[in-house]
Design a protein that fits this description.
- Helices cover 49% and strands 11% of the residues.
- It has a two-stranded antiparallel ribbon with strand order 1-2.
- The chain has one domain.
- It is built from 3 helices and 2 strands.
- It is mostly helical and 70 residues long.
């Protein structure tokens, strides 16, 4: 599953990314995990999922887009 890293995320995909930003042990569906990995928004490190710098940047952009201070 490949999608441009700049492509929009569905509300469910964005929720998965947010959950991982708070706790890398959060359960995430296999579909979302594969998608976020392919978009380079998350990475696996020693079996743990974590946000990449691109993933953190995406969350900041989403906050700004909603009018929420970063």
């Amino acid at each position: 599953m490949n999608r441009d890293p700049k492509a929009s995320l569905s509300p469910h995909e964005l929720r998965s990314l947010r959950q991982l930003s708070f706790d890398s042990r959060q359960p995430v569906s296999d579909v979302h995990r594969r998608l976020l990995l392919s978009m380079r928004l998350i990475k696996l490190n020693a079996g743990q999922m974590g946000l990449t710098s691109e993933g953190h940047e995406r969350l900041m952009q989403e906050k700004v887009g909603l009018g929420t201070p970063p």
